[in-house]
Amino acid sequence: MPCVLIVEDEPDVREFMELLLQTSGYETMTAPNGLEALEQMRHRKPCVVLLDLMMPVMNGWEFREHQLAEASIADVPVVCVSAVFDPLQVRQRMHVPCVRKPVEFPELLQNVANACNGGHDH
Q1: Beta-carbon contacts of residue 90 (< 8 Å; ≥ 6 apart)
Q2: What share of the chain in percent tops pLDDT 70?
Q3: Any idea what the CATH number is for the domain that residue 49 is in?
Q4: What range defines the domain where residue 53 resides?
Q5: Which of its termini does the chain have fewer beta carbons within 10 Å around, N or C?
Q6: Does residue 122 carry a pLDDT above 60?
């Protein structure tokens, strides 16, 4: 079963996304910030990371820098989820797809499906 890592500091949003993905046939892991997300990824590689940008401890931008610097996890696809930043600007800066909060679930699931069922060279 494909596994999705949800990196989100708001417990309600995290649980809601987790429930949505689980009922759609995905296994989930969650982290409240980028630092914990990196730790989890070192133990188990998800097929995609759903990444909030505004978080305490380590935000989404910092997470992405660290992720790309670690060869073992650099290739894991990321989909950013943000209420604050313009999705187009995020795409240009981070080179990843971005969905706006409040999340449109069909769009989110499509991004997850694209990342987990393809988009990989290996």
Answers
A1: 53, 80, 82, 96, 98
A2: 96
A3: 3.40.50.2300
A4: 3-116
A5: C
A6: no
Q: Which run of H or E residues covers position 52?
A: strand 48-52
How far apart (Å, rounded) are the C-alpha atoms in residues 21 and 4? 8
Q: What's the number of domains the chain is made of?
A: 1
> For the segment 47-83, what is each residue's pLDDT rounded down to a tens digit?
999 999 999 999 999 999 999 999 999 999 999 998 8
How far is it, in rounded angstroms, from Cα 101 to Cα 42?
28
Rounded CA-CA distance 23/119 in Å is: 23
Identity of residue 100? R
